[in-house]
Amino acid sequence: YCFYLGWTRKKWFLASALLFGLAHLTKFNALFTLLPLLLWGLRLHFFKILHQILILLLVSGILFFLGWPWLYHSPIPKIQSYLHNKTGRILLKDSETPRNFSQDLLKPPSVIPVYYLGKLYKDKTSPVPWHYPWMNILSSLPLWLILLCFSGIYYWIRRFKWNSFETLSGINLVTLLCLYSLPFIPRYGGIRFLLPVYPLLPFFAAYGINSLLTLRKNNPYHYRLRLFTSLLILVPLLSNLWDYRFYPSAYFNSFFGGIKGAYQKGLTAENPLIPREALTYINQNLSSNARLLIRSMDPFVLQLIKTLGILRADIVLTDSVQD
Asked: Rounded distance, CA 256 to CA 262, Å?
């Protein structure tokens, strides 16, 4: 949004450069967002978009360095190590070991096993299908939001203007999803690598709602209708939050049958779930001050459940077998 406003206003472009630098500092994948910006800008002004992309890269590089004190000492080998770590999964073989690089960031394995649609993909001879990111998007959003997104995309195409914010958002959405579908891009981790896509979906949903309601703009109750519709959308949202209060690491919409139906179809969440039955069993059968070993699970999830009183307060959480 800042980049769109910054196309004609310098202060907004400066804001977009700062935000892009912070995004790059947070996650390497932020660099992928430059591609849709470039595609959108090339149609409007070839030299201007190249100039702005160079500024974004320069500002992000400065913020990236200043915001990561780890780089201050021996920055060159550490930056090499960082790039080796982030691109090595695609470009290098597992047997290739870095020389003179910082050992803090070693090359990750080329393939991460993924269980998808009832099949385990664990080597390069059988890569995860291209539709993995699309299926994750469709299964992890409430149905009403998906329908509103499609309505927003419909009205965007119907009123298409290249220099509009809707077109910039649409190019971002399509480009990022297609990028994650390319055969040489590793696909794993559920929705984790699709986080740049998700903010675009509520925008198109809101655009769809607004477009549908403006069809009745002459109605004397137009504004009341908009308020009522907005409040009505909160009902299924609050219902979903209540239904999934014991499952903080996963969500599957009703089209896929919820968590149970999704598991039957061979879809799984990135992190293990915490069934209510398991928590009940632990609370009823573990002795006083028992130690609970956590494996393949974020300890903060159980700690949160413990803080909320769902897990017994005397149970000690540990991730060490020696404890």
From this structure: 5
